[in-house]
Structure formats: C-alpha cells, structure tokens
Amino acid sequence: MSGRRTLRxxxxxxxxxxxxxxxxxxxxxxxxxxHMTWIPDMIQTIDDAVEHFExxxxxxxxxxxxxxxxxxxxxxxxxxxxxxxxxxxxANTTMLAQFRAIGAYADVTDAIxxxxxxxxxxxxLAVVQRPDGRIDGYPSEGATWAFFYRQDLFEEAGLEGxxxxxxxxxDAALALTKDTTGDGxxxxxxxxxxxxxxxxxxxxxxxxxxxxxxVVRFEDDRWVxxxxxxxxxxxxxxxxxxxxxxxxxxxxxxxxxxxxxTNGFIFGNFAMMWNGGWVVGxxxxxxxxxxxxxxxxxxxxxxxxxxxxxxxxTTFHVMQAGRNQEAxxxxxxxxxSEGRGNGLTYADELALAANVFNWTDDYxxxxxxxxxxxxxxxxxxxxxSVPLPMSPAWQQFAELxxxxxxxxxxxxxxxxxxxxQQLHERxxxxxAR
Length: 433
Prior knowledge:
Elements: H1 2-16, E1 29-35, H2 40-56, E2 60-66, H3 72-81, E3 88-91, H4 93-100, H5 114-119, H6 122-128, E4 138-150, H7 151-156, H8 166-176, H9 199-210, E5 216-219, E6 222-225, H10 230-244, H11 258-266, E7 272-276, H12 279-286, E8 294-297, E9 309-318, H13 325-335, H14 346-353, E10 357-358, H15 361-370, H16 376-381, E11 385-386, H17 394-410, H18 416-432
Parallel strand pairs: 1-2, 1-3, 9-11
Antiparallel strand pairs: 3-9, 4-7, 4-8, 4-9, 4-10, 5-6
Helix pairs in contact: 2-14, 9-10, 9-17, 17-18
C-alpha cells in the first residue's frame, strides 16, 4: 500500500503536464520473406506492397531477404536445417520439386480465397498442386517459350507463313538451310534452339512433351520415368534428326545458349529459332533494322496432336517450418488481391515489371488486350503451356547424366533408343533412392 501512495504525486504531476506513463508496446509479428527479385521495377512493386500491407496491418512487419537464384537453394536449405526457416520463400520449378520432396511447404489449399484459387491457369495449377491434389504455393510471374521466324528469309525461300505441324516445320527448315555465299559451307540454318548447359535437358524435355510424353509420372505413390515410352522416343528422335538426318540445325548448337541463338537469328544464321519471350525485347533493342521482318508463332504440333508450349511460373510458398504461417498467408493473399489502384494486383504488377505473365485468367485477358503484337504468340502460349518435369530427382538426373547424353545424341556419338533406355533406368534408380 505504501508503494502506491508514493507514486500518486508523480501521476498527478504527469497529468497536469498532459503526459502519461508509457503503455506497453503492442506485440508485433515479423514475417521473414525470402525472395530472388532483382529487377528494379519488381523490387519497387514488392516494396510498395509491403508498405501498403504494413499500413493496413500495423501489428505485422514484413522483413525481406533478397538473394541470387544461384545461391537461393543452399541458403534456404541451410536456414531450414538451422531452425531459422523463413515464413515465405520464392522458388523456381527446380527448387519447388526439391523442397516439396522434404515437406518444406505448408498446405495452403484452404487458406487461398476460392476466387483466387479458381483463377489459376492449368499450367500454374500443374506447378503448385502436389501429387495428392493439395496446393502448396502461389503461382507468380513466369515466362513462356515460342518459335520465332525471319519473315524476310521466308519470303526469299518462297514460304508464305510459319509451319503448324512437325512435317511442315521440317519442310520449311530444309528450304531455309542454305549456303548463301557459295563457298560450299552452310551459313544459314533453318532452325536453332539453345543446347548449352542446362538448356540441353530443358529443350529435350519439351520435345518429348510435344510428342505426348509426360517425361515423368507420379503413380502408386512414387515417381517413375516415362523415358522408355514410344512418345519419349518420338520426341527425342525428332530433335536429333534435325541435326543428324536433316541438317537444319548445326552440330555446334551444343555450345550455344539462348543469347548465342538469338544473335544467330538476328544475323540471319538461323531462319527460325525456339526461345523465351524475353528475347522479343532483346531483338527490338539490338536489331532495329529488322523491324517488321520477324515474328513469333506457336510451336508446331506433332502429327495428330495439339500444340504444346513450354512455360511455367515461379512460385511463392508459406514455409512449413515458418513461425508465422497465418501472417505469411495473410500477406500473400493481400499481394494477390490488392494493388496500387490501377486495376492490377501487386502480383500482376510484378509480372508486368518483368515483361512476363501472372498465371491467372484475369491477367491473361489483360495481356491479350494490352501486350504488344510481337508478344501475342507468347500470350497465347500461356494456355497451352506445360512445366518442366516436377520429379525431385530431375535436376540431379540432368546434371549427372542427361546433359551430356543429349549433347552426345545431337552430335551422333550415342544411339537414341539405347541411350534413352539407359537414361530411363538411371532416372528410376534415382527415384528409388
């Protein structure tokens, strides 16, 4: 009792001065947000979203950790193993498969608003759905790939427009493969696509998918290889024949990345190429003299099949080991529903800043209405895209066996059918581990 009486004069004095004792600070939740965003406009979009969210939710703070895509897998794994997992983490398809396999991502199926969940395009759902059908991520910005053709070279060869089937594609590529200088060496090839490093396996997988192979399947609670299927053989053989039988793609393609192929297209060494949508801007910047002389088109369809494109989003995930899953989910739902007041969400703005796509039906409609004519084939490709194989063993398989095998097959050093069988057995051995 005596203690209280000694405090009262101080309270009276503070009240007379219009002051009071400080209240205990409200508890604040910190959401650790791990991402790999480096383009300035994309960074600004995330910063604006964080500022807006924190204004509306003063009890939650978003703390960003930005790393490179190269360092991200190791850093994320280290944080998980060290008991300091972030609450939200970004991933590409390779990371997604790797960390999904160890149960790193929380199930957010019921936490995502139904309207948002139903807006995800099929190619996006194929990425964020686990084999059991539950959703463990939010599809974010991502690219599509399509074919390009030089309209001027097509006109010189007497070709009226881009091919729609594999047979038409081969015929056009043969007509476009020439010795233009008369020195006895081919200097204009009908086609090219990147095969250097990781490109070898990624484009090879796409050829098989175009032929109807899923490349890997999830059945009976396990991943299995589809590399022994007739469709996988068809797609692989078609790719190899472009070099070995038809000669419309040079054997030196194995040393070319996306930029090498793009430069070849600009200089007329490739009359057609297969490349990512970001290349549109590269051509526009580097080759203004080609304006009106090139265009994109959807990948030609294998005989008897519908066209298939390569494309997939990056993803955001609420981490299973995160300390603040509820607040993390709240922020992601905000990111996908609120914006700067221009009709686009922050997730939409992130895709727009990267000149790619947000994988929702609303954004697809927006891109169809607003994206430049040169990008429309890539917009159209969104609806027919399939992601890379989602097996957690795929990346290790690519690095250990598949990259060198694909390059060897393209150079005629290994027989296709025998090599596919070997790769099939090695992939299943990795799955068994």
